[in-house]
Amino acid sequence: MIAERYVNLAVLIGFIALPLWALSADEPFTITLATRAAILALAAVGLNIALGIGGLVSLGHAVFFGLGGYAMGILAFHAQTFSPLELGPLSTAGTKSMPVIWVVAVVISALAAWVIGLLSLRTSGVYFIMITLAFGQMFFYFAISWGAYGGEDGLSIYLRNAFPGLNTLVPIQFFAITFVSLCLALLVQWRLRASPFGLALNAARQVPQRVEAVGLNPMRLKLVAFVISGAITGLAGALFADLNRFVSPTMFSWQLSGELIILIIIGGVGRLFGPVIGAALFVALEHWLGGLTEFWLVWLGAILLLIVLFARGGVIGLLTGKAGPHV
Amino acid sequence: MSDVVLATQGLKKSFGALTATDDVSTDLRAGEIHAVIGPNGAGKSTLIGQICGGIVPDAGRVELLGRDVTALSTAERARAGLGRTFQISALAMEDSVLENVLLGAIGAMSRAGRLFGGFDGDLQSRAERALERVGLVDVSATRCADLSHGQRRQLEVAVALTLAPKAFVMDEPMAGLGADGSKTMTGFLDGLRSEAPILLVEHDMDAVFALADRISVLVYGRIVATGTVDEIRRSPEVRDAYLGDTA
After folding, report:
1. Does B179 touch chain A (CB under 8 A)?
2. What's the CA gap between A52 and A312, in Å, rounded?
């Protein structure tokens, strides 16, 4: 078995090396693929905090991904059409500034996660899965019927939003933004898992009655994790919308929620770099297998089946064995 | 009485037509071990649930150090000073022994900001002291799932110890232990009473008679007798209802 930190380091180096090679080889599409992988990994890192540490199998995380996406889409739409965005007594011209959009995406996603978490966390197991799925479907159908912002057809943004000091239209520079965001999210996940909060959350997943008996509130622990998780996934949604310069109701779809879970299972549930490995493999398979056959998802399904049956710890578990202790 | 640490007054709980506890009034005084015994289905678990939270009584109240805690949640009662152990070990099996006691230390010392800090010296030393007390230091890095049953019972007590509670409520700490394990645990609990009194629910009569200062006998949800070990042994009512010839 290889020590997990070496595997993590190798993945990190690979994530940097591939786009740099693509830059030198003049392969901008490969950089875009790496950017897509980084953003999906970011979304999955968010979900991994709730699912991997807290055991919350959310089939509605696309809500936060979609909210992040629509936060970007709506703000940029008003900025590019010079039409004011009316919010009751408040009016804004929208914005094309990425940092501002990120703040809005993160705050809205966190608020939504707080409300959804408050209601969903009263349930557990299959009921939790169903209630989060129901929230996802509510947002999905609302977006479809929201004609002001494209309804079913979605919303196109003509130009990628701006980041101070960078040209976001240059693929490697936009990749750098997404990669740094991913690294920061990984840092948050690492700090959370290695903190007393992470230990208590992990215990709340296993023995909530014990956590209560030592004076902690398991539901509150899970709610905090769910909010942090939603906020990170919301940020990923804003970046994903910027990558495609397009938002649509599919960002809210349950299929997307399912894909995020699949990424984590493939990489390794609860493992720091599990979502990164899962997202990288997913994008690679989508690209290479998708080029060979339109039925590439069948192969993805077979891989998922093998991992669930024979490698519960995902790819990272296969390489490094069981996860180490918190302290 | 001034030395009463934990008290119940008229606790009543029914599940449909079944009355699980019926007007249960009892107390736990400083420095004592008060055992609650009774046949299966007598209402002991329901009583513990009402004392520690989790089961809301239909009537009656629970007081800890003179404060009415009946409306408090389990977690709030734990923070108020109630340390409990479970009949079936409730431990994080995937985590190490040290992590399990650290959880108790986190609960005892948690403040919102502190949860997101590191594992500072206070947390570590509190956890390690608890492990030393129950003799599990050598296996602190072992996964809980790899412990023997006896070690898990010891760990249950260690987690409660980290809370430095005002009163312990222990649900069958000898459950599943062999003769040696039971003897070791009996000796340990005997030394623990000076730190905090223990409300002990237990089926192991040897342990109960060795440890208890007072015994209450619960039958069909009602306390039929309370007294010293000798008084309970001699009570014909208790012999008929529960002890038979074992006393």
Report:
1. no
2. 13
- pLDDT, one tens digit for every residue, chain B (247 residues): 469 999 999 999 999 989 999 999 999 999 999 999 998 888 999 999 999 998 999 999 999 999 999 999 999 999 999 999 999 999 999 999 999 999 999 988 876 567 888 888 888 999 999 999 999 999 999 999 999 999 999 999 999 999 999 999 999 999 888 888 889 899 999 999 888 999 999 988 889 999 999 999 999 999 999 999 999 888 887 777 776 655 5
Say how far apart CA B15 and CA B138 lie, in whole Å: 45
Amino acid at A319: L
Residue count of chain B, please give it: 247
Nearest-by-Cβ selection for A196 from B95, B96, B119 = B119
Contacts B159 to A, Cβ<8 Å: 210, 214
- For residues A199 and A33, is the Cβ–Cβ distance under 8 A? no
Tell me the two tokens of residue B88: 């079936």
Sign of the C-alpha dihedral computed for residues A275, A279, A280 and A285 taken in this order: positive
| pTM, entire model | 0.91
| Runs of H (alpha helix) within chain A | 4-24, 28-48, 62-81, 98-120, 125-144, 171-193, 196-206, 208-213, 218-244, 254-267, 274-292, 296-310, 314-320
Chain A nearest CA to B245, separation (Å): 37
- A66 contacts: CB under 8 Å, gap ≥ 6: A139, A140, A143, A237, A247, A249, A251, A252, A256
Could you count the other beta carbons within 10 Å of the beta carbon of residue B101?
29
A282 CB burial (10 A radius; 0-12, 13-18, 19+) = buried
The SS3 assignment for A153 reads helix
Q: Is the Cβ pair B103, A217 closer than 8 Å?
A: no
Given A194, A209, A215, which is nearest B90 (Cβ)?
A209
CB contact B110 to A (< 8 Å): yes
CB pairs under 8 A between A and B: 105
Amino acid, single-letter form, for residue A39: I
